[in-house]
Every structure is written in structure tokens, then in C-alpha cells.
Amino acid sequence: MEQVAVERTLTRMAHQIIEHNCGTDHLCLVGIKTRGVPMSERLAKNIEQISNGTICRGTLDITLYRDDLTTYYGEPKVSSVDFPFEVTGKTIILVDDVIFTGRTARAGMDAVFSAGRASKIQLAVLIDRGHRELPIRPDFVGKSIPTSRKEIVKVQFSETDGKTGVSLFSI
To answer: What is the pTM of this model?
Structure first.
């Protein structure tokens, strides 16, 4: 995906989020570091432009074991949480660039549960590459890309990488 396709996809996802949630009341986006954060910011800005409202934002830093590589380092762990809002009663949308096994999403849900009782937790990802190991599926998907375990999906955002796009590599 080139930059224009990523931007178009994030705009479509913003519309889907608003429609699915019947507006933006009590909606909070939480970006999972690293690339889920700029994605979350872009989604929030799109949602705010469409709805003329303000979206609460937060971040999660989950220490990853890079399950897209061949070495397994253990379960992902939440290393920091920044929720500058009350979680209880809110609809929390976890935002990540790629979903693979589902373990990072599960760690994110655990972090939300430990911060309060959200009314809903939803998951938005730019790329769903398959190979789930847990019964987790995203509510909002930019693009599904069937991959083998010997491939890597590389998402780039200008905020973190100097350019925006999605590439697929074999290892």
C-alpha cells in the first residue's frame, strides 16, 4: 500500500468506527506503541473532522516478542499505560498496525481491564495478516493480507519512519 491508499483506508475506518458506535460519545482510542500510536492519532483526527467532536486518546507500550520473526521471546507484557481519561464506562478502541497471533491485542485488553471497567473494547488494525493463535478478531480492518509465517508485514508511518506505506517481505 502506498501513502494515498493508507490515508484512504484510515478515512474509511474512521467512518466505520463512527457508524458502528452510533457516533463518538464515550469513545476513546488507545494506540499500541510503536506504529499503533500514529495510526491512532490519524484515526482520531479523521473521526474528529467527520463528527466535529473530540476523541480521547491514550497509549499502551507493550513489550513485544516479535512473533513475526522466527525466535519466540515469551508473552508480550505491558510496560507502560497512558490513559489520560477514566476508562470506566467508555468504549475503548485498541489501535495497532498489524494483527498476527492476537497476543498483543490480548495484552492490550488486559491493560484496559486493569485500568477500569470499559463498557466495550474494540480492536482496529490496519493489516490483518492471519495466523491467529487466540480467538481474537479485529472489529475494524483496513486490509486483510494472507501471509505465510515466513513473511513480514512492514507498516511505516511518516511520524515514526519518515514515510507512509505497507510492504511485504520474505524472511
So the answer is: 0.91
